[in-house]
Structures are given as structure tokens and as C-alpha cells.
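Predict the 3D structure for this chain.
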Amino acid sequence: MKRLGWVAAVLATAAAVSGCGGGGGQGMTGPGQAGQQVAREDADQPRPYRLTLPESLGHGRYAGSHDAPPVDPRLAQVMADQIEGATAVFGWYQSAPKDRDGALAIGVTGLYGTVRSPATALEQFQSVLDGRDNVQGFIVGPRSITPPRSREPLRCRIVLVRTGGVDFRRAECSWADASAVVVVSEPLREAVRPESVDLDALAAEVAAVREDVRAPAS
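Done. Predicted structure below.
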């Protein structure tokens, strides 16, 4: 895929991840997988929080894009059986000029409220997003990764996505707890081999993003 095709895929991804498309499409997650890769529900949980979208993430590495489409509120409706009082958020962030050698953009898609079962909610949320975004399958992972200096695991993977007849690869890490379920995604450049992506490094970055988007519930 040429540079123009990659940019088109990124823009299409931003539009797709902000909406809810066809509802609960066919997901790529097998029964019980998410439950094996999310922390036990009786494990230590963070204090109750809500999701916010600050102007920048990751110690200033990513700057919020004001051109991002608004989140589709239907996403909260689809997940209403799993998250009481669900509120949907979506943010599209571009890398700061000083970091152009890294990722070009990341998307943050999440719901916050009272999560009844984090493992089940993450499995359902991931299935909805996979079906909506036309995910074709896994390339790497999923893996459960607990970044250094964190006690909370992330579920990370690389998937093949087909948008407008164009295939591209996307790396992502997700988490769920009693307050929220969130997926942070990064479209990969064409020149990047999926097998060479350091998922541990990605998880460390997403762990920093996780801290940035959390705000006290009250």
C-alpha cells in the first residue's frame, strides 16, 4: 500500500472507530479468551474513575486532533447490558512533530460507567469493534502484558483490518475494570512488519495513556 493508501486507511479507521456501524458483528475472540487475559475480577481494582480526553497523551507524545469525528452514542446502547450508565468516548491523537519517527496516530475508544463483569464486558466490546471494523483475523497475539511499574494487565494484539477494499494492520491494547472498558489502537505503517512490533513497548505506552485518560469519578 502506498503512502496515500495508508493515510486513507488511517482516516477511515478514525471514522470507523468513532461510530457503531452494524452493531454486534462477528468478533474474532473465542469463548473465554478475554477472561483468561484480563485480571481476575476479584483482584485489586483502581479507584472509581471516568474517562477524559486531555489535549495530549503519553507525556506530550500525542496531540489531540480537532478533526476527529464525534463518538457514536449507540456504542453505549450496544453495551448497556454490560455497563450500567455507560458513556462513550472517542479521541484521535496524532504524534507530536518531535516524534515523527514513531507512531503517526492512535485512537482511544472506550466506555465508562459501572462495569458488571470486566472480563465479559471486554470480550463483548472487542467483539463489537471487530465486527464493526471488519477485522479479518489476528496476526500477532492476543497477549496479556503487565507493563513495568503497573499491576494492571493489558490485552495486546495485532490484527488485519479491511477498510474500503484496502487491507492494513493495526496494533492495539485494551483493558477493562470496574469503571471502564477501553481499546487503544495504532494503525501500522506499511513498511512495518507486524512480527517486529514490540508489543511490550506498546503496552508500556498504553499504560501511560491509561493514566492520562483516568479522572476521579467525582
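The first helix runs from residue 3 to 18.
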